[in-house]
C-alpha cells in the first residue's frame, strides 16, 4: 500500500517553494521601502536629536543672558531716574532759596 502520493508530494514542495519565495520578496520589498524612506527623509533637511538638544541649550543660555542684561539695565535706569529726581529736587530747592 502506498502512503505517499507523488502528486501531493509535488504540490507540498511547490507550496513550500512559493512560501520561501514570497518571504524573500517581502524582505526585499521591506528593504527597498526602508531605503526609499531614508532617501526621502534625508533630503528634507531634518536635524538630528543631538543638534536639536545643542541648539535648545544655546537658546536657554541666551535667554538667561538676556534676562540678566535686562535686570541690569532696569537697575541702571532706576538709578538714573533716582539721580534725575534728586537733581531736579536740588534745582527746585536752589531756585526756591534764590527767589527768597
From TrEMBL:
Protein name: BMFP domain-containing protein YqiC
Region Disordered, residue ranges: 78-100
Native species: Parasphingopyxis lamellibrachiae
Low complexity compositional bias, start-end: 78-91
Pfam families associated with the record: BMFP
Protein origin, superkingdom: Bacteria
Amino acid at each position: 500500500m502506498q502512503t505517499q502520493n507523488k502528486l501531493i508530494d509535488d504540490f507540498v514542495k511547490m507550496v513550500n517553494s512559493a512560501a520561501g519565495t514570497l518571504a524573500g520578496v517581502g524582505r526585499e520589498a521591506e528593504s527597498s521601502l526602508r531605503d526609499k524612506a531614508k532617501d526621502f527623509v534625508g533630503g528634507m533637511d531634518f536635524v538630528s536629536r543631538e543638534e536639536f538638544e545643542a541648539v535648545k541649550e544655546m537658546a536657554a543660555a541666551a535667554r538667561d543672558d538676556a534676562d540678566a542684561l535686562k535686570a541690569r539695565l532696569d537697575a541702571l535706569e532706576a538709578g538714573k531716574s533716582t539721580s534725575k529726581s534728586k537733581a531736579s529736587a536740588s534745582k527746585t530747592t536752589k531756585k526756591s532759596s534764590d527767589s527768597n
